Amino acid sequence: MISRVADHCFWFGRYLERAESTARVLTATRHLALDAELTSRQCWLPVIIVAGEEEPFTKRHGEDGADEGEVVEDYMSWQEDNSVSIRRSIAAGRENARSIREVLSAEAWQAINELHLWISSPDARETWQHDRDAFYRKVRDATLFALGAVRSTMLHDEPLDFIWLGVLLERVSQTARILDVHYHTVTQRPSYFDPIPANGGAQQVLDTAVWVALLRACSGLEPFMQRNQGRVTSKAVARFLVHEPRHPRAIRYCVHAAFVRLSQIRPPDRRDLPGGHTLERLRALDEWLATQPDDALEGEEIHHILTHCVDETAAICNGLGRELLGYTAPEQVQQ
Question: Rounded distance, CA 254 to CA 156, Å?
Protein backbone atom coordinates (compact mmCIF):
# COMPACT_ATOMS: atom_id res chain seq x y z
CA MET A 1 0.00 0.00 0.00
CA ILE A 2 1.56 3.30 -1.07
CA SER A 3 1.91 6.12 1.45
CA ARG A 4 -0.35 8.50 -0.47
CA VAL A 5 -3.30 6.13 -0.21
CA ALA A 6 -2.56 5.41 3.45
CA ASP A 7 -2.46 9.15 4.17
CA HIS A 8 -5.87 9.77 2.58
CA CYS A 9 -7.36 6.78 4.42
CA PHE A 10 -6.00 8.05 7.74
CA TRP A 11 -7.36 11.57 7.26
CA PHE A 12 -10.68 10.36 5.89
CA GLY A 13 -11.22 8.63 9.23
CA ARG A 14 -10.05 11.62 11.25
CA TYR A 15 -12.28 14.12 9.45
CA LEU A 16 -15.39 11.93 9.75
CA GLU A 17 -14.79 11.53 13.48
CA ARG A 18 -14.08 15.25 13.87
CA ALA A 19 -17.35 16.25 12.16
CA GLU A 20 -19.36 13.88 14.34
CA SER A 21 -17.62 14.97 17.54
CA THR A 22 -18.24 18.65 16.78
CA ALA A 23 -21.92 17.97 16.15
CA ARG A 24 -22.15 16.08 19.45
CA VAL A 25 -20.46 18.88 21.40
CA LEU A 26 -22.74 21.52 19.89
CA THR A 27 -25.86 19.47 20.64
CA ALA A 28 -24.82 18.83 24.24
CA THR A 29 -23.93 22.49 24.76
CA ARG A 30 -27.32 23.63 23.45
CA HIS A 31 -29.04 21.34 25.96
CA LEU A 32 -26.75 22.58 28.73
CA ALA A 33 -27.57 26.19 27.89
CA LEU A 34 -31.28 25.39 28.19
CA ASP A 35 -31.16 23.14 31.27
CA ALA A 36 -28.52 24.75 33.52
CA GLU A 37 -28.42 28.18 35.11
CA LEU A 38 -25.23 29.20 33.35
CA THR A 39 -24.37 32.30 31.39
CA SER A 40 -24.01 31.98 27.64
CA ARG A 41 -20.26 32.46 27.96
CA GLN A 42 -19.94 29.69 30.55
CA CYS A 43 -21.64 27.32 28.12
CA TRP A 44 -20.09 28.31 24.80
CA LEU A 45 -16.51 29.38 25.47
CA PRO A 46 -15.44 25.78 26.27
CA VAL A 47 -16.62 24.75 22.79
CA ILE A 48 -14.13 27.17 21.22
CA ILE A 49 -11.34 26.15 23.61
CA VAL A 50 -11.87 22.42 22.98
CA ALA A 51 -11.64 23.04 19.23
CA GLY A 52 -8.33 24.89 19.68
CA GLU A 53 -9.87 27.96 18.03
CA GLU A 54 -9.88 30.49 20.87
CA GLU A 55 -7.29 32.83 19.31
CA PRO A 56 -8.67 32.90 15.72
CA PHE A 57 -12.25 33.09 17.04
CA THR A 58 -11.37 36.07 19.24
CA LYS A 59 -9.64 37.81 16.34
CA ARG A 60 -12.72 37.36 14.20
CA HIS A 61 -15.50 38.03 16.74
CA GLY A 62 -13.80 39.89 19.58
CA GLU A 63 -13.44 39.11 23.27
CA ASP A 64 -17.21 39.01 23.73
CA GLY A 65 -17.92 36.70 20.79
CA ALA A 66 -18.44 33.67 23.04
CA ASP A 67 -21.22 35.54 24.85
CA GLU A 68 -23.46 34.71 21.89
CA GLY A 69 -24.22 31.03 21.38
CA GLU A 70 -25.50 31.76 17.88
CA VAL A 71 -22.11 33.19 16.90
CA VAL A 72 -20.25 30.14 18.26
CA GLU A 73 -22.61 27.70 16.55
CA ASP A 74 -22.25 29.47 13.21
CA TYR A 75 -18.46 29.53 13.54
CA MET A 76 -18.24 25.84 14.45
CA SER A 77 -20.80 24.75 11.85
CA TRP A 78 -20.24 26.81 8.72
CA GLN A 79 -17.18 29.05 8.66
CA GLU A 80 -14.80 28.19 5.83
CA ASP A 81 -11.85 29.85 7.58
CA ASN A 82 -12.34 27.57 10.60
CA SER A 83 -10.43 24.40 9.79
CA VAL A 84 -12.42 22.35 12.33
CA SER A 85 -15.94 23.51 11.44
CA ILE A 86 -18.44 20.82 10.51
CA ARG A 87 -18.63 22.01 6.92
CA ARG A 88 -14.84 22.10 6.50
CA SER A 89 -14.42 18.68 8.13
CA ILE A 90 -17.01 17.07 5.86
CA ALA A 91 -15.55 18.72 2.76
CA ALA A 92 -12.04 17.56 3.71
CA GLY A 93 -13.29 14.05 4.47
CA ARG A 94 -15.02 13.88 1.09
CA GLU A 95 -11.90 15.15 -0.70
CA ASN A 96 -9.76 12.47 0.94
CA ALA A 97 -12.39 9.86 0.05
CA ARG A 98 -12.40 11.04 -3.58
CA SER A 99 -8.65 10.46 -3.72
CA ILE A 100 -9.00 6.83 -2.62
CA ARG A 101 -12.04 5.73 -4.60
CA GLU A 102 -10.09 2.64 -5.67
CA VAL A 103 -9.98 1.29 -2.09
CA LEU A 104 -13.27 2.64 -0.69
CA SER A 105 -16.45 0.64 -1.16
CA ALA A 106 -19.21 2.18 -3.27
CA GLU A 107 -21.42 2.40 -0.19
CA ALA A 108 -18.81 4.29 1.85
CA TRP A 109 -18.18 6.75 -0.99
CA GLN A 110 -21.89 7.29 -1.53
CA ALA A 111 -22.41 7.98 2.18
CA ILE A 112 -19.75 10.70 2.46
CA ASN A 113 -20.60 12.18 -0.94
CA GLU A 114 -24.30 12.47 -0.08
CA LEU A 115 -23.43 14.14 3.23
CA HIS A 116 -21.17 16.60 1.43
CA LEU A 117 -23.84 17.43 -1.14
CA TRP A 118 -26.46 17.87 1.58
CA ILE A 119 -24.40 20.20 3.76
CA SER A 120 -23.56 22.29 0.66
CA SER A 121 -27.26 22.66 -0.18
CA PRO A 122 -29.78 25.36 0.83
CA ASP A 123 -31.78 22.66 2.61
CA ALA A 124 -28.99 22.12 5.15
CA ARG A 125 -28.76 25.83 5.91
CA GLU A 126 -32.53 26.06 6.26
CA THR A 127 -32.55 23.09 8.64
CA TRP A 128 -29.82 24.74 10.71
CA GLN A 129 -31.85 27.94 10.90
CA HIS A 130 -35.16 26.35 11.92
CA ASP A 131 -34.32 23.07 13.66
CA ARG A 132 -30.79 23.10 15.02
CA ASP A 133 -31.06 19.75 16.78
CA ALA A 134 -32.25 18.10 13.56
CA PHE A 135 -29.24 19.54 11.71
CA TYR A 136 -26.74 18.15 14.22
CA ARG A 137 -28.60 14.84 14.35
CA LYS A 138 -28.35 14.57 10.55
CA VAL A 139 -24.59 15.15 10.71
CA ARG A 140 -24.17 12.57 13.47
CA ASP A 141 -26.35 9.98 11.74
CA ALA A 142 -24.69 10.48 8.36
CA THR A 143 -21.14 10.24 9.72
CA LEU A 144 -22.02 7.16 11.74
CA PHE A 145 -23.61 5.64 8.64
CA ALA A 146 -20.44 6.35 6.63
CA LEU A 147 -18.23 4.77 9.29
CA GLY A 148 -20.60 1.83 9.50
CA ALA A 149 -20.43 1.41 5.73
CA VAL A 150 -16.65 1.40 5.96
CA ARG A 151 -16.67 -1.34 8.60
CA SER A 152 -19.42 -3.40 6.92
CA THR A 153 -18.56 -3.22 3.22
CA MET A 154 -14.76 -2.96 2.94
CA LEU A 155 -12.15 -5.67 3.18
CA HIS A 156 -10.64 -5.72 6.66
CA ASP A 157 -7.13 -5.04 5.48
CA GLU A 158 -4.69 -2.12 5.44
CA PRO A 159 -6.97 0.63 4.03
CA LEU A 160 -9.54 -0.06 6.75
CA ASP A 161 -6.78 -0.24 9.35
CA PHE A 162 -5.55 3.24 8.42
CA ILE A 163 -9.09 4.67 8.34
CA TRP A 164 -9.90 3.30 11.77
CA LEU A 165 -6.51 4.32 13.15
CA GLY A 166 -7.42 7.90 12.17
CA VAL A 167 -10.84 7.57 13.84
CA LEU A 168 -9.38 6.24 17.09
CA LEU A 169 -6.57 8.79 17.42
CA GLU A 170 -9.00 11.64 16.69
CA ARG A 171 -11.29 10.29 19.42
CA VAL A 172 -8.45 10.24 21.95
CA SER A 173 -7.68 13.89 21.29
CA GLN A 174 -11.33 14.96 21.25
CA THR A 175 -12.27 13.17 24.49
CA ALA A 176 -9.17 14.38 26.33
CA ARG A 177 -9.71 18.00 25.27
CA ILE A 178 -13.42 18.00 26.13
CA LEU A 179 -12.84 16.46 29.56
CA ASP A 180 -9.87 18.68 30.40
CA VAL A 181 -11.60 21.96 29.56
CA HIS A 182 -14.89 21.10 31.27
CA TYR A 183 -13.27 19.55 34.35
CA HIS A 184 -11.12 22.59 35.03
CA THR A 185 -13.91 25.00 34.22
CA VAL A 186 -16.17 23.42 36.83
CA THR A 187 -13.80 22.22 39.56
CA GLN A 188 -10.45 23.92 39.25
CA ARG A 189 -10.84 27.43 37.86
CA PRO A 190 -14.05 28.99 39.15
CA SER A 191 -12.62 32.46 38.54
CA TYR A 192 -12.16 31.69 34.85
CA PHE A 193 -15.78 32.76 34.35
CA ASP A 194 -18.03 35.00 36.40
CA PRO A 195 -18.64 33.23 39.73
CA ILE A 196 -21.68 30.99 39.99
CA PRO A 197 -23.53 31.39 43.28
CA ALA A 198 -23.13 28.23 45.35
CA ASN A 199 -26.18 27.34 47.40
CA GLY A 200 -26.05 23.71 48.38
CA GLY A 201 -28.52 21.56 46.47
CA ALA A 202 -28.92 24.02 43.61
CA GLN A 203 -25.16 23.96 43.01
CA GLN A 204 -25.15 20.15 43.01
CA VAL A 205 -27.92 20.12 40.40
CA LEU A 206 -25.93 22.58 38.29
CA ASP A 207 -22.75 20.49 38.52
CA THR A 208 -24.71 17.36 37.56
CA ALA A 209 -26.14 19.13 34.50
CA VAL A 210 -22.62 20.04 33.36
CA TRP A 211 -21.31 16.49 33.76
CA VAL A 212 -24.35 15.02 32.01
CA ALA A 213 -23.75 17.40 29.09
CA LEU A 214 -20.12 16.26 28.98
CA LEU A 215 -21.15 12.61 28.88
CA ARG A 216 -23.62 13.35 26.09
CA ALA A 217 -20.89 15.10 24.11
CA CYS A 218 -18.85 11.88 24.34
CA SER A 219 -21.85 9.62 23.63
CA GLY A 220 -21.40 8.11 27.06
CA LEU A 221 -24.44 8.99 29.17
CA GLU A 222 -26.29 5.66 29.00
CA PRO A 223 -23.12 3.51 29.36
CA PHE A 224 -22.01 5.67 32.32
CA MET A 225 -25.38 5.29 34.05
CA GLN A 226 -25.21 1.52 33.61
CA ARG A 227 -21.68 1.40 34.99
CA ASN A 228 -22.22 3.79 37.93
CA GLN A 229 -25.85 3.18 38.92
CA GLY A 230 -26.76 6.77 38.06
CA ARG A 231 -24.38 8.51 40.50
CA VAL A 232 -22.92 11.45 38.59
CA THR A 233 -19.82 12.98 40.18
CA SER A 234 -16.79 14.70 38.67
CA LYS A 235 -14.45 11.88 39.70
CA ALA A 236 -16.78 9.17 38.39
CA VAL A 237 -17.16 10.92 35.02
CA ALA A 238 -13.41 11.45 34.72
CA ARG A 239 -12.72 7.82 35.63
CA PHE A 240 -15.25 6.60 33.06
CA LEU A 241 -14.03 8.76 30.16
CA VAL A 242 -10.35 8.06 30.85
CA HIS A 243 -10.20 4.48 32.15
CA GLU A 244 -13.32 2.58 31.05
CA PRO A 245 -11.93 -0.21 28.80
CA ARG A 246 -15.34 -1.06 27.30
CA HIS A 247 -16.60 2.35 26.19
CA PRO A 248 -15.62 3.05 22.55
CA ARG A 249 -14.94 6.75 23.21
CA ALA A 250 -13.02 6.37 26.46
CA ILE A 251 -9.37 7.35 26.16
CA ARG A 252 -7.96 4.03 27.36
CA TYR A 253 -10.15 2.03 24.99
CA CYS A 254 -9.20 4.18 21.98
CA VAL A 255 -5.47 4.16 22.72
CA HIS A 256 -5.39 0.39 23.12
CA ALA A 257 -7.51 -0.16 19.99
CA ALA A 258 -5.24 2.20 18.04
CA PHE A 259 -2.19 0.23 19.20
CA VAL A 260 -3.84 -3.01 18.01
CA ARG A 261 -4.59 -1.42 14.61
CA LEU A 262 -1.07 -0.11 14.16
CA SER A 263 0.31 -3.51 15.20
CA GLN A 264 -1.66 -5.05 12.35
CA ILE A 265 -0.26 -2.50 9.91
CA ARG A 266 3.28 -2.73 11.24
CA PRO A 267 3.79 -5.94 13.27
CA PRO A 268 6.08 -5.41 16.30
CA ASP A 269 8.39 -8.26 15.25
CA ARG A 270 9.07 -6.79 11.78
CA ARG A 271 12.10 -4.65 12.53
CA ASP A 272 12.77 -4.30 8.81
CA LEU A 273 9.61 -2.17 8.36
CA PRO A 274 9.24 1.57 9.05
CA GLY A 275 6.98 2.77 11.83
CA GLY A 276 8.69 1.07 14.75
CA HIS A 277 9.30 4.27 16.72
CA THR A 278 5.67 5.36 16.43
CA LEU A 279 4.41 1.90 17.37
CA GLU A 280 6.64 1.91 20.44
CA ARG A 281 5.39 5.35 21.45
CA LEU A 282 1.77 4.23 21.12
CA ARG A 283 2.52 1.09 23.13
CA ALA A 284 4.13 3.21 25.86
CA LEU A 285 1.05 5.47 26.03
CA ASP A 286 -1.21 2.42 26.24
CA GLU A 287 0.80 0.93 29.11
CA TRP A 288 1.11 4.28 30.89
CA LEU A 289 -2.67 4.77 30.87
CA ALA A 290 -3.19 1.28 32.27
CA THR A 291 -0.99 2.12 35.27
CA GLN A 292 -2.71 5.39 36.23
CA PRO A 293 -4.62 4.92 39.50
CA ASP A 294 -8.19 6.13 39.88
CA ASP A 295 -7.04 8.47 42.66
CA ALA A 296 -5.06 10.45 40.07
CA LEU A 297 -8.24 11.45 38.24
CA GLU A 298 -8.88 14.67 40.10
CA GLY A 299 -7.22 18.01 40.80
CA GLU A 300 -4.14 19.03 38.86
CA GLU A 301 -3.17 15.42 38.23
CA ILE A 302 -6.00 14.83 35.78
CA HIS A 303 -4.89 17.91 33.84
CA HIS A 304 -1.42 16.35 33.58
CA ILE A 305 -2.87 13.02 32.40
CA LEU A 306 -5.12 14.60 29.78
CA THR A 307 -2.45 17.00 28.52
CA HIS A 308 -0.03 14.10 28.22
CA CYS A 309 -2.61 12.16 26.17
CA VAL A 310 -3.21 15.12 23.82
CA ASP A 311 0.52 15.80 23.37
CA GLU A 312 1.40 12.14 22.86
CA THR A 313 -1.44 11.65 20.38
CA ALA A 314 -0.21 14.63 18.36
CA ALA A 315 3.35 13.26 18.46
CA ILE A 316 2.11 9.81 17.37
CA CYS A 317 0.19 11.32 14.45
CA ASN A 318 3.27 13.28 13.40
CA GLY A 319 5.37 10.12 13.73
CA LEU A 320 2.93 8.26 11.51
CA GLY A 321 3.26 11.06 8.99
CA ARG A 322 7.04 10.83 8.92
CA GLU A 323 7.43 7.05 9.08
CA LEU A 324 4.46 5.71 7.13
CA LEU A 325 2.49 8.45 5.37
CA GLY A 326 5.25 10.10 3.38
CA TYR A 327 5.51 13.53 5.04
CA THR A 328 8.82 15.31 4.61
CA ALA A 329 8.04 18.57 6.45
CA PRO A 330 5.68 19.51 9.30
CA GLU A 331 3.68 21.90 7.13
CA GLN A 332 2.60 19.01 4.92
CA VAL A 333 0.49 17.49 7.70
CA GLN A 334 -3.23 18.13 7.18
CA GLN A 335 -5.09 20.04 9.90
Answer: 18
